[in-house]
Each structure stands twice: as structure tokens, then as C-alpha cells.
Design goal:
Elements: H1 3-18, H2 27-38, E1 43-47, H3 56-59, E2 63-68, H4 71-78, E3 83-86, E4 100-106, H5 115-125, E5 126-137, H6 142-149, H7 166-172, E6 177-184, H8 193-196, E7 199-205
Parallel strand pairs: 1-2, 1-4, 2-3, 4-5
Antiparallel strand pairs: 5-7, 6-7
């Protein structure tokens, strides 16, 4: 069994047990921000698109290519009318340089062994002035800190290989311009964004 097939099996099982086809981390708030940042009239590469639940937010008015390691989920995403590519996003993709206006990495980088390589690959695939849009869990939110203090793992998801703070996200975006972060989603976020936000959303531009 190849590495791609092994990952397919692992993530298919994880998605079927823990993520419904319509699940979007951060819900309507994250979907609305991604739709705003992506815009329309764009060629979009959606890395880790899964079933396409979030893809629906920015599908209208755009040409979307969805990539995922879960072949079964990708088959459902294809029913949205998007082009799909079964691939391991931790590796270079068989796509030409500077061929997309937007690359999306939503709730993806925390799953990858070397997220900086995937960010570099996004940079390669973007046209000059193109935008990288993504999100990662806010690993240092209060809930995770309390888990750690109580002797448990701060992040219980076994598929998460990295924990990100806002500063760590900015480091990943060092090759881009005009990085923007938003701390989003969470019932108590108004009390303290860094402690109660569930996601760190980000966008940044490839230099012209």
C-alpha cells in the first residue's frame, strides 16, 4: 500500500467517525470571512477540501480545483461541479507554477509534518499578487491551556501534528506580503479573543 493510500484510509476513517459531510469548523462566521477574502472571478485551489462543505462558500463566481487525500470525500466534493485532484498536499503537486489567483488552506496546516513546505508550494502556485487564505486552530485558547494544566494533551485530535499561535502563523507567512490575521469563532470571544477564539484565520499576498 502506498503512502497516499495509507493516508486515504486514515483520513477517510477519521472523517467518517468525527466529521459529518456538512461540518465546517468555525461555522458560518469562517465561511463568510473566506467568501469575502476569496472574492469572485478567481481561479481557486482548495487544499484539503474534504467533502466541499466550506468550498460552497466561495464556489459561486469562481473556478475551483479541490485537492484532498480522502478519495471518497473528494468524490462527494466533485458533485459540486469542481475539478478534483487526489493527492497528498504535504508533497509537491503536479500543477504548473503561477496558475491560481487564490490558494486556500483551511484547517489543514496543523495536520502536516512540514507545514512550511505546503506554504512554499502555495507560493509557487499563486500568480503574482495572488492571495493565500487559510485557518488553523487557536492552539493556545483557554480550553487547551486548561487541558494541559489538568494533565491531558492540550489538543485531543490525534491527526494534529502542530500547534499554532498567531505569532507562529505570521512566521509561516514570511514569504508573503500584507499578512492579516483574525481570531474568530467561540461563544466567549468578546471577553478575550486570544483566550476564547477557536480559529486563527489568515490571508497574505504573493509579491508582484
Amino acid at each position: 500500500m502506498s503512502r497516499l493510500e495509507q493516508l486515504d484510509e486514515t483520513y477517510r476513517r477519521h472523517h467518517e467517525q468525527h466529521r459529518s459531510p456538512g461540518f465546517v469548523a468555525g461555522g458560518p462566521q469562517r465561511a463568510a470571512i473566506f467568501r469575502e477574502w476569496v472574492g469572485t472571478g478567481r481561479r481557486v485551489l482548495d487544499l484539503g477540501c474534504r467533502y466541499g462543505a466550506l468550498t460552497r462558500a466561495y464556489l459561486s463566481g469562481n473556478e475551483v480545483v479541490g485537492v484532498d487525500v480522502d478519495r471518497r470525500a473528494l468524490g462527494k466534493a466533485a458533485k459540486l461541479g469542481i475539478e478534483t485532484l487526489w493527492a497528498d498536499v504535504a508533497l509537491p503537486l503536479a500543477l504548473p507554477d503561477a496558475s491560481f489567483d487564490v490558494v486556500i488552506a483551511g484547517e489543514l496546516l496543523e495536520h502536516l509534518p512540514l507545514p512550511e513546505k505546503t506554504v512554499a508550494e502555495a507560493h509557487r502556485l499563486l500568480r503574482p499578487g495572488g492571495v493565500l487564505v487559510g485557518s488553523v486552530p487557536n492552539a493556545y485558547r483557554l480550553k487547551n491551556r486548561l487541558r494541559f494544566l489538568l494533565g491531558g494533551p492540550p489538543d485531543p485530535d490525534p491527526t494534529h501534528l502542530h500547534m499554532f499561535s498567531p505569532a507562529a502563523v505570521l512566521q509561516l507567512l514570511a514569504g508573503f506580503e500584507e499578512p492579516e490575521l483574525r481570531l474568530a469563532s467561540g461563544r466567549l470571544i468578546r471577553l478575550h479573543r486570544r483566550l476564547f477564539a477557536n480559529q486563527i484565520l489568515f490571508r497574505a499576498l504573493k509579491p508582484r
